[in-house]
Amino acid sequence: MSTKISYFMPYLKLQSLLHALCDAGYSCVGPQVRDGAIVYDVLNNVDQLPWRIRDQQTPGGYQLEKISEHKAFAFANGPQAIKPLLFKPQETVWKVKRDNEGKLSFQPHQPEEQPLAMIGARSCDLAAMTIQDKVFIESAHPDPRYKKRREHLFIVAVNCSYSSNNCFCVSAGTGPEVKHSFDILMTEINDGFVVISGSERGQAILDGLHLSKAKAIQCTKASNVVEHTAAMQTKRIPLDNKQGLRDLLFANLNHSRWEEVAQRCLSCGNCTSVCPTCFCHSEVEKPSLDGSCSEHQREWDSCFTAGHSYLSGKVIREDTRKRYRQWLTHKVGSWFDQFDTSGCVGCGRCVTWCPVGIDMTEELAAISGESNVRIKESD
């Protein structure tokens, strides 16, 4: 756990935290149950949180269940991460208008949005956000819409207390302990939260709550929560040297496993939609009916669509085998060439939300010759 000052926040203070964030000018979003899943939406009252709810995840399966523990963050994750808050699924980039003389004028579009405070960000999601930062902020041409949202995003992170069967963040080196990119970090224990700040604005919010310092036993419980969560995970990405995995994949572009997985893959793009790091998008024109104006819009796209690889009148990746191979080799391979990191954070969403239950750790294991299951030592 961090060496920062640890405070204890009882459950009764959780609503005060929301009020403090609202008073500071933030609109709060947090996890809540909707349509059989845990999603992030506007959060006004702590009663909206998924109290006593846990998710059971399998390849191609997601189900919520009631548990006896009175906890608000006892789940692993849902289909959303931070990505939809910063990189919108669809938005206008610029507008063009025609005046009475027929001249065109172009104007960049920067929507007016209230600063957001996200409650419940997990370590894998924060790792994914730092990767998206490389794409949209640290590139040669930063995206002003993403950049503004990122600067105005207040993050209340939560250390995971539970790993689903599809989590493998330990193997990816991204969790389950939150170590960076947060304003406030909470670890849920039996009667509340052990809390630390990660920024000046986070400390200012905590100061206003007048919390007492956490006791040693509470800090120990918080540390044990993270250790227990890490020990629950069994899936893994093959090879300890992830750049070595990159070299192995590109040395096996004709491996028979690509054809085998293509027989199961639907090319539906679900994996890219729920992935917290995928950033592929297309740009389209939305003209008015009278031709007086038009909006240039950006919307999420997927490397599993035929149009994604359309180049000079030809579809380069014309079948599912090539599209799945492109997705996986880019995600855990050539991403290193672009951003000096893997594009996989081990959240397991692509496994859970695949309609046919394709497990990327199994596909990587088949190509590498390793097992994707970490064998636990006997007591």
TrEMBL record:
SUPFAM superfamilies the UniProt entry points to: alpha-helical ferredoxin
PROSITE patterns named among the record's database cross-references: 4FE4S_FER_1, 4FE4S_FER_2
Key words of the record: Iron, Iron-sulfur, Metal-binding
GO MF, one example: iron-sulfur cluster binding
Database matches in InterPro entries: 4Fe4S_Fe-S-bd, 4Fe4S_Fe_S_CS, Helical_ferredxn
Domain 4Fe-4S ferredoxin-type span(s) in chain numbering: 256-286, 335-363
PANTHER family named in the record: ANAEROBIC SULFITE REDUCTASE SUBUNIT A
Protein name, as recorded: 4Fe-4S dicluster containing protein
Organism: Fluoribacter gormanii
